Amino acid sequence: MPADQMGSVYRTSKGFGLRWYDEARTRRRKAGFSSRSAARAWLRDVEIPRMRGERIAPSSLTLAEFCSRYVGRYAADRSPATVKSLQWRLVRPLREFGDLQLTGLRPGEIAAWEASLPPRFRHDVVRALRMVLDAAVAWQHLTANPAKATGKNPSPPVVERAVLEPGDVDRLAFEMTHPYDVAIIVGAWCYLRPAELLALERGDVGDGVLKVRGTKTARSRRTVPLPLRASEALRALPPRLDCRLLFPSPQGGSYDACNWRRREFNWARDAAGLPGEITPYTLRHSGISWALHAGIPASDVARFGGTSVSMLETRYHHLLSTSAEAARAKLDVFSRLGQESATETGV
Fold this sequence. Notes:
hpI Integrase, Chain A; 3-stranded antiparallel β-sheet; two-stranded antiparallel sheet
């Protein structure tokens, strides 16, 4: 094994990383440390004892106790809806392993438990558990993530979601009470998540743009174009001095997305004759589909939608192929115009 070493600490975009040589003289690296001293302390107290074959003092925390700490830190820069989603995904692993100490988790037992999960939930639930145990490794409660030794965690097949036509959105809006009829139009044409839609304030409406707040993470805050159809709908809202929100609850406060769906959206959907699978999230899905079908570049759609191009490629690949065809058509026109210009100049 290499002699005792201090390692080489370097800065990353999210903190600090560490480079060192392991017992096989292989160059290794690890990132995610909060400071240089934390990186060197991990090498001294965790990795070097491991390479020597020494036993590391086990953590006394159970999985349930550590999850509570992790969720508290996770909630510091995530929206309540995202935190609630993580907590829901951790219900199954906590039910199975919550009373076990972190060091008592065994890959074989986790693998058997994963196999018993319903296919519909397996990917998200296992991903949440792995994320928590990655944090346990980074926070020096574990030397390795036992959930990552169980094999791959493939994503489930993409389920094609329903897409509304603009006329369907208008019909749905007609059945909604005011001002939520305007919310339907804005949510679809600006492809907003339900929580983002209900968090909009009057000051967020600019000249041809809309500032989006209430996002899943602080990095998702963005400014999106305000199409003419949505702009016209917003102008129909009467001015109010008692509330900054565009779409407040009947009591004047912020409307919870689940309550809004149950109290306002569902009955209007049924009255409009739309299928029961239509949800407020369908508005965002439809808007993204319209934008891609219109030929807007996927990078712009991802930026305006507060998501990633890779997600678009996974869920909207059939529309991206249409976008590619539109791009080829535009290049063909450009090429033809260039040839005509060259012919006219005699080149």
